[in-house]
Amino acid sequence: MKEAGYYDESITNRVVVMVEPYSQQKQIQQVVYRILDANLDRTREGLRIIEEWCRFGLNSAQLAGECKYLRQELVIWHTEELRAARDTPGDPGTDLSHPQEEQRSSIKALLQANFCRVEEALRVLEEYGKLYHPKMGQACKQMRYRVYSLETNLMGYQRHQLLRRSRLYLVTSPSESLLSTVEAALKGGLTLLQYRDKDADDTVRLELATKLRQLCHTYGALFMINDRVDLALAVDADGVHLGQQDMPIAVARQLLGPQRLIGRSTTNADEMQKAIAEGADYIGVGPVYETPTKVGKAAAGLEYVSYAAQNSSVPWFAIGGIDANNINDVIDAGAERVAVVRSLMQAEQPTLVTQYLLSQLNRIKPET
Ligand SMILES: Cc1ncc(COP(=O)(O)OP(=O)(O)O)c(N)n1
Ligand SMILES: Cc1ncsc1CCOP(=O)(O)O
Ligand SMILES: [Mg+2]
């Protein structure tokens, strides 16, 4: 790219020679080339790691295609002269690694680390690229913004896909053994958790929600917060569950953005239609049976479960009084997903109960 570069003879003579002797300019040029070469490789490698997950983990041709497009855009800039400047044996950075790079706690952590790597490398390319070609800085800047969008879309897609795959939803109740019970359920295959505590102080809520979010994400499960949009944002939860008396969905959506999940409780057909029209990502359907967990709330019954089975266009969870003894009645009424509090929070062996409930739900063939 000599014809338009900063080191173009004509520009060099007029601009740089005044500052650095010619031999030093050449040395600096080589350094810039090495930086560009290394960061072009780094960006491409990071994108490839992300692309593999989009393709094989998410089966998303659209997201994988975006990664591929970005990789190919980079190749245009990876010229022979930049590759020729490579000096791997002389690079003091090849042996440097951080302990966190040796271990990733989850796919989410792996993806985030690689997005970070790609975004940083693109920023380097943007700055040093300006010394190489007038258009390189701008091109890398645009790519960096596309990577930010890709990151947001991928994380949102990931959440929605996991939501659709989740058949069992544990809604917590206050417990001395909250963390160990939740972990036991996660070990049994739970992929969706809601932190619900109607009475605790915010300091306690904040501490527990942070720990639960970490735990859920370590096991690759979604973490939701009951009622409180502010808390969901504060602990970087995957979303919020809102009842009919809680914040309107439109307001929550504005605060949470398009990628986080919003669930809405519904007790009848009107509430269901309204929740879907307002953009709920999933709905709670119940209480199926009267339950001491929600004192004074009348049962909506199995008829409403059947109505949801026929009419809901979004994932829905039957909730209220569901346990190992009656889950098959709820399934027979049309439920493919259920949410429980006591069945798991009060279980002596939460892992086994989770496995049992999931085994019953997994007998139903997945929706198309
Ligand atoms: C999955 C799910 N469905 C329903 C509810 C109940 O929400 P809400 O009506 O707001 O009542 P509280 O849980 O806030 O007491 C839920 N939490 N989760
Ligand atoms: C929060 C909530 N919303 C409708 S029923 C219910 C509680 C369900 O609790 P349990 O599973 O213990 O009956
Ligand atoms: Mg509520």
TrEMBL record:
It holds the Pfam family ThiD2. Residues 1-146 are annotated as: Unknown. The keyword Lipoprotein does not apply. This is Thiamine-phosphate synthase. Coiled coil: none annotated. The gene is thiE. CDD domains: TMP_TenI. It comes from Anabaena subtropica FACHB-260. Condenses 4-methyl-5-(beta-hydroxyethyl)thiazole monophosphate (THZ-P) and 2-methyl-4-amino-5-hydroxymethyl pyrimidine pyrophosphate (HMP-PP) to form thiamine monophosphate (TMP).
